[in-house]
Amino acid sequence: MSPLTLSLHLLSPPSMITSLLFILFLLLLLHHAITPYFSKKLSCPPPSPRGLPILGNLHQLGPLPHRTLHGMSLRHGPLLLLKLGHVPALIASSVDTAREVLKTQDNLFASRPSLKVPATLFYDNKDIAFAPYGDYWRQVKKLSVLHLMSSKMVDSFKLIREQEVALLVAAIARASASRSTVNMSELFASLSKHIISRVIVGKPSREEEWDSVLHLMIQECSLMLGSFHVGDYFPALSWAGKLTGLDAKLKTTMATASDILEAIIEQRLARSRDHGDHHDREPECFVDVLLSAVKDNTMGVSFGKENIKAIVTDLFGAGTDSTYIVMEWTMAELVRNPKAMKKLKEEIRGIVGSNPTVSEEDLASMPYLKAVIKETLRLHPPGPLLVPRELMQDTKMQGYDIPKKTRVFVNVWAIGRDPGVWEDPEEFKPERFFGNSIDFKGQDYELLPFGGGRRVCPGIGFAVVVLELALANVVHRFDWELPNEKRGEELDMDEVFGQTVRRKNSLQLVAKPC
Ligand code: HEM
Question: Which Gene3D superfamilies match (predicted)?
């Protein structure tokens, strides 16, 4: 997720204070226009920390909401009903409550709220991640899994991954030869974005003049998806984005994105005209698949250019951000934990020997590498609260009443640090995954970095092989240190919350060939 998909859509710290002040002012003016949210009295609501009139608990979330909500769950219990402005928000913070949302009552919790930024960026939620539950979502998810994310398709992108990882290793080697510090955040982001652009658009975007604009635009979308829109919490004030400037910014970004996507679509249509149906020069890309769905009218739902643009924007974000964020956190944890780094190097060397390159066939024999990635995802899920769900009808959970339209967050970050589930939860110990079958595919509710149930991330296979291949190669080829002879444990692990939770500071390392 989130993707652009991984939009947690709570609060973005920089804009939060000004926005909250602004809301307060507006609310004073418009107080009378706002009906109290909990107008329908719940006979048995879940515990709820005391909040302020009108704002509810909105002001309490702070710059890192997943941590604040974890603290609240320790005080009030694993199922909380907050009031975020005008909106009820259920926070599930334990294995049992997560299972209830993602499995037992998944059919009721499978929709998404319609939020201002994604609704605009994705042409009224015509993407996958924010599409409301129903036929349209079912069709587009099926199409994307079949043609992009099934294991057969993921296998077919092997050459792309190998070429892009080779370019990553070459870039590190160049920096290492000139004794420069390597900005691993930048290199991992570049790797992810070029892999995704090759499978979606058909060629590495670095060959296109729109490359830098497209990726700036994706970054811009990602920032906006993590930003605070007054109307998402006070529907009566949904026009307020016009005053904060967010609506204008959205409009400009949309226009730029739309122009680039239009050019991509035209390019693919021209190619198809030139080569007829025999596309023997260049392989088909995902935009071609979407264009065929428009041409052949195979979706069974209304489907045109806007749908293609929404889905492509969504997948660019989904395929780039979360994947590179996990690589960043993994390298950071390995540098902070030299014993784990050593053990991983030994495992890789034991399999590939003096061969300089780790290939995809080698990965199956690397259980420690897999455990390292699981452990990173336990401690640093890029979407610590998943993508918000929306409850489709009134229900009961653990004896409590939950009203229809409640926005639902599963705090997988809190579950990953629950001492009742994990021994020494704050420590980085990949070995904890030996001797058990806990995996992150959405069946084990103690480890849910990709969510679960109907809305589970369809990109797990796509992401994991990129993570494994890239990490195995960079760990195998170089010895890693912090600049200025700092010790590993001095590396900061500060987070910044937005559409995804990433490192606050970029990961700058020194690489020495080994
Ligand atoms: C390490 C990398 C990734 C992580 C941690 C991640 C995580 C997530 C999470 C937490 C969700 C929400 C699940 C839920 O609501 O239960 C999600 C949804 C989604 N992800 Fe990923 N994701 C990753 C990579 C990818 C990639 C590479 C793609 C596509 C190429 C992708 C495409 C999607 C899509 C389309 C959805 C929306 C699914 C729906 O709403 O039905 N993700 N992802």
Answer: Cytochrome P450
